[in-house]
Amino acid sequence: MGRVAGKIALITGAASGLGLEDAKLLAAEGATVILTDVSEERGRKAAAAIGPAATFVKHDVSSEDDWKAVIAGIEKSYGVLDILVNNAGVVILSSPEDCTLEQFRFANAVMSEGVFFGCKYALPLMKNSRAASIINMSSTASHVGYPIFFAYSAAKGAVRAMTKSIAVHCQAEGYPVRCNSIHAGAIETPMVQLAQGRADEAPLPIADGILPPGALGSPLDVANLVLYLASDESRFITGAEILIDNGLTVRPAP
To answer: Is residue 180 helix, strand or coil?
Structure first.
């Protein structure tokens, strides 16, 4: 308990899935968490379920004005931001030939421009922190080829590259801010359920212990990594791309 005690955390896309699990764990470990999402009803219910340590703000991460308003609200209420988890994402099933310009721009507006806006507008406030951490959710799609997730992969590749530039920038400027990216494989979340055609089905149970190749991971697997990167325990880690994929990207082809 208390691994992020006293820290102020902003988590985007936190009404469900990975973002919600991050919010629950960070709050349990002592952080004050601000959940944001475009889904207002689910977001408010999620924050209420977490308790007094959590608040919800409706937020479209592709909107520059929304980002300005969210950060201004945090500055007014807390004066500082210690943790930023750029988690919000969308999945679009389309190949390089089928993907429309509209689909490509939408995916990148949410997951590439959204991360850009988050880092750009959060950094001035995070500089006031004693020790701050930006955690950008990328994907194994930035490491291997998934033609059917073409636009998604492009956006996550941008996140991977931006993370390194932000990390170096913060060190060069002397900011007390680290920046790392997480590259998860398939995790049992609403997004993966949608991609696998199981959107209307109950989530699959995830077994305890070591999982076999090809198994889905649990949102808590990722949240535990987010907690570590958010905490001062990871003070010597910045600019890293951390794979959490049960060996997917290192496994030889069958």
So the answer is: strand
